[in-house]
Amino acid sequence: MNAPVHIRHMLTPIRVGNVELKNRVVRTAHGTDIGKFHVDENLIAYHAARAKGGVALSCLETLSVHPESSPGHLDPFDPTLIGGYRDLMRAVRPYGMRMIQQVWHGGHNAHRKDGLPPWSASDRPGLFDGIPSQPMTKGMIDFLVERFAESVAVVREGELDGVEIHCAHGYLLQQFMSPLHNRREDEYGGTFENRLRFPLEVLRAVRARVGTDIIVGVRLSPEGVEGGMTVEDVAGALQAFQAEGLIDYANISLGNYYTLHKIIGAMHEPVGYELPTTDPIGAVAKVPRIASGRFRTLEEADQVISRGEADLVGMTRAHIADPDIVRKTMAGHPEQVRPCIACNQGCVGGQKELGHLGCTVNPAVGKELTLAEDLIVKADRPRKVMVVGGGPAGLEAARVAALRGHHTILCEASADLGGGVNVAKRAPRRQVIGDIVDWMTQEVYRLGVEVRLSTYVEASDIREENPDAVVIATGSLPVVTGFQLHAPHEIPEGIDLPHVVTSTELLTGQARYPEACDAVVFDSVGHYEAIAAAEHLIENGHRVTFVTGYPSFIPKLEISFVVQPALERLARTGRFRIMTRTAIQAIGPESVTCYSLFASQQVDEIPAGLVVMVSPQPANGALRDELDDFPGTIAVVGDALSPRFLRIAIAEGHNAARTL
To answer: What is the rounded CA–CA span in Å between residue 287 and residue 221?
Structure first.
């Protein structure tokens, strides 16, 4: 099949080292925890799905060169590792996808399970543990140089196509290169040449061990913090590495642990947000360059190649969301690609909530052996399925039910599909979140779902329709409850005043309030809803006091890398302040009375012509109670069961329809 003109650069083969890549599509290394430190059948299935979809080059999550640096995702001392590698290669090789292994030591951004201090260039502590490091001796340096070499030998024995040495993101090798962390006065510190000595020794040992048999790449990044490695420093390191013929490609990224939100930019970042720093570094490259930065489509990535800004493009989160981007696009159906919305709540946050990589928009991630899309088969006996509610849970249920061959009816009370996401996408810098319901909407129509808009469904309507199964996805009720998570006994006086509103009323324009007034946003949820309200108000000229019972600002999203950027945007306005560990006692016509949760006698009166209450909402699940005598299958999904978040809503809609 000839490549479409608009993506021909991305589909052109390229040689990296002695390895031919079939196209320019790369999945960079990313932690999954799917195999729980092993290359098991689940991790293999995850990567094989992307191989089948058309990816050319994938990089496995970190291989820690020594057990004292954890949590590396893979362990070179694992006796099953080589066998796992070979099983992986047997699974992906038929599709032409090349596999490389990222090799890593975390330095002070890892921790030791034995409680001893981490190793680093100097005694600087890491950001998370805060434990002063043990400055490495010459013996320790020589030991780790050999460990890097031994680890890549294991990779080669496992029949992978290459290795990537991690010199970025604030890990050990960058700690030696960085003037921010390297305060040594020996031959490994001081001058730029001295600070490059350890990474150069590692790369020389690696190249000596594997020769040109496999790819040897390097990951680099400017740190993006004052005193850290600059764009010029990274360019200098790249020149030094390639001058000795030590590397076959350069994977250029951005950020360190102080700028995590730049490593994996969320939806507030534009497509290609890393290019302003990638391009000047890549300009000195004599080896193929990999660029990343929230690319979702082959067309977006193709423009980067056509402009000469990179030779390959990382599309990692995009392929988490949909493993078949290349296949669908080459088949002439790019509109069928499930879009990544860059929320970071499944791919990054999922590792905390699920214990392994997940995806907000793709429930099959990490569960490809049982939930892969191509395992959806037609039901033996097509049924009549009625889905009530056209939000994300209902849309996904209708989509999957249609894929299973059921006669599917989707009823939505409003004039549009999308549910609560139609409100969420109105928030500043959150328009991208709407892409997933736009895609679902398009899919349910394409698959022949009978869609009934402006259709309010009661129990009598369901009985009259007489379906075999009902999926209730009616969402939650956006009402002011006054509930305070950290002060459950305290329903504020004045909660029923007309200027006390929900975020839904605010973002949809239903709330009425004076121009440029003082406003209070009270957050008892700890998720993006409160950021959305505050930022909407400030961008419309208001002054905001953000009040929350939580000990910090939006704690449930820290792992998703959106909190720091939001705080920076809000703080720059000069019209934003935060009060944490605080409850509301009373709301008056022009003020809010608050008190400290740890010292209730400390009372503050805050000017407020508008109060936005962000509290847990009640489920809109009454329909289920009215169907006790319904003879068919009933499933309640998403917020109709209990108001939670988008990833769970989509997963529940998917799973409910899958079992019909």
So the answer is: 16
Partners of 20 in the beta sheet?
15
pLDDT band at 2 (very low <50, low <70, confident <90, very high): low
Taking the C-alpha atoms of residue 655 and residue 642, their distance in angstroms, rounded to an integer, is 16
Mean pLDDT value across residues 466-476: 98
Query: d(Cα 545, Cα 170) in Å, to the nearest integer?
Result: 35
Three-class DSSP category at 62: strand
- The position carrying tokens 């009040």 is 547
Looking at residue 409, its amino acid is: I
Cis peptide leading into residue 492 (ω within 30°): no
Q: Which of 288, 270, 297, 318 minimizes the C-alpha distance to 4?
A: 297
Contacts of 31 (CB under 8 A, 6+ apart): 61, 62, 73, 351, 357
114/274 Cα distance (integer angstroms):
38
C-beta separation of 470 from 386 below 8 A: yes
Label residue 137 exposed, middle or buried (CB < 10 Å: 0-12, 13-18, 19+).
Answer: exposed
3-state secondary structure 561-610: CCHHHHHHHHHHCCCEEEECCEEEEEECCCEEEEEECCCCCCEEEEECCE
Cβ atoms within 10 Å, residue 623:
20
The pTM is what?
Answer: 0.96
The C-alpha atoms of residue 229 and residue 559 are separated, in whole angstroms, by 24
Closest CA to 199 of 138, 240, 258: 240
What end-to-end distance do the CA atoms of the chain give, in Å? 37
Average pLDDT over all residues of the chain? 96
- Grouping H, G, I as helix, E, B as strand and the rest as coil, residue 173 is helix
The residues near 559 (Cβ < 8 Å, ≥ 6 apart) are 344, 348, 349, 352
Question: How many other CB atoms are found less than 10 A from the CB of residue 7?
Answer: 25
Peptide bond into 71 cis (omega under 30): yes
The three-class DSSP label of residue 280 is: helix
Among 126, 102, 99, 96, which Cα is nearest to 112's?
A: 126
Please report where in the chains the tokens 């001893």 appear, as a residue: 116
In which element (H, E) is residue 382 found?
none
CA distance 274 to 278: 6
271-295 residues labelled b (16+ CB within 10 A) or e (exposed): bbbbbebbbebbeebebbbbbbbbb
Percent of the chain with pLDDT over 70: 99
The closest of 594, 611, 590, 591 to 602, measured between CA atoms, is 594
Look at residue 523 and give its three-state secondary structure: strand
On the 0-12 / 13-18 / 19+ scale of CB atoms within 10 A, 19 is middle
Half-sphere exposure of 56 (CA within 13 A, CB side): 22
Taking the C-alpha atoms of residue 250 and residue 218, their distance in angstroms, rounded to an integer, is: 5
Mean pLDDT within 65-70? 79
Banded model confidence at residue 211, pLDDT cuts 50, 70, 90? very high
Counted residue by residue, the chain has a size of 660
Amino acid 393: pLDDT = 98
Contact 501, 611 (CB under 8 A): yes
Say what the pLDDT of residue 114 is: 81
Please enumerate in sequence order all residues whose Cβ is within 8 A of that of 387, keeping only pairs 6 or more positions apart, or say none. 394, 397, 398, 401, 408, 409, 410, 411, 470, 471, 473
- What is the predicted pLDDT for the residue at 515? 85
Query: Looking at residue 186, what DSSP letter applies?
Result: S
